[in-house]
Design a protein that fits this description.
Layout lengths: L7 E11 L4 E6 L6 H5 L3 E4 L2 E4 L2 E7 L2 E6 L5 H5 L5 E5 L13 H4 L3 E5 L7 E12 L4 E6 L10 E4 L6 E5 L4 E7 L3
């Protein structure tokens, strides 16, 4: 998720403590999960402010990740980090191939669909608020915005070349083959 007015992205969250030596449980929003630790430049959001943090060790644990925060060596200290979001610099993300996008790049784009009567014109359906990972495919959550055709929220499958016909980041626009009544 992109942070307003900054180049920092939320990449994970500390969900609890692990053991007695200052390790914490991490829910990573990256795919694969351990990519979070390849990015570096980590910051934590505490009461609206960002503070740098260093993870000096990490490993997979069950279905998630655990990590040790440098300088935090007991469970009581680690408890103070529970619930904090982990942010990384957007510039630390690897470049993608043409036609591939990070979720934060899609958030905020205007979504234009087909006009149902003529099938020729395009109508503004809303803006991408966020995406949902469903397993089969990702889903765009499109919220109504100023100028949109109605006030409906729409869930639109993010299927390139099937539903999503064009993404223009520079124009802030996405065209979808999606009718108003779908």
């Amino acid at each position: 998720m992109s942070e307003p007015g900054s180049s920092a992205l939320t990449a994970g969250k500390i969900t609890g403590c692990y053991g007695i030596k200052g390790w914490v449980k991490i829910h990573s929003y990256t795919e694969p999960q351990d990519n979070l630790f390849r990015l570096g430049g980590w910051q934590l959001r505490r009461r609206g402010a960002l503070e740098p943090v260093e993870f000096d060790q990490w490993k997979r644990q069950g279905k998630g990740m655990v990590a040790h925060i440098a300088g935090v060596d007991d469970r009581n200290e680690a408890e103070a980090y529970r619930g904090l979001e982990i942010l990384v610099a957007a510039a630390s993300l690897p470049s993608l191939e043409e036609g591939d996008y990070y979720w934060h790049q899609l958030e905020g784009l205007e979504v234009w669909g087909r006009e149902p009567e003529t099938d020729a014109g395009r109508v503004l359906l809303g803006r991408v608020d966020h995406l949902i990972e469903t397993g089969a495919n990702d889903v765009l959550v499109v919220q109504a915005c100023e100028g949109s055709i109605d006030d409906r929220e729409r869930l639109i499958p993010y299927l390139l070349d099937e539903v999503v016909s064009d993404v223009d980041l520079a124009a802030g626009r996405m065209d979808v083959d999606w009718y108003l009544d779908e």
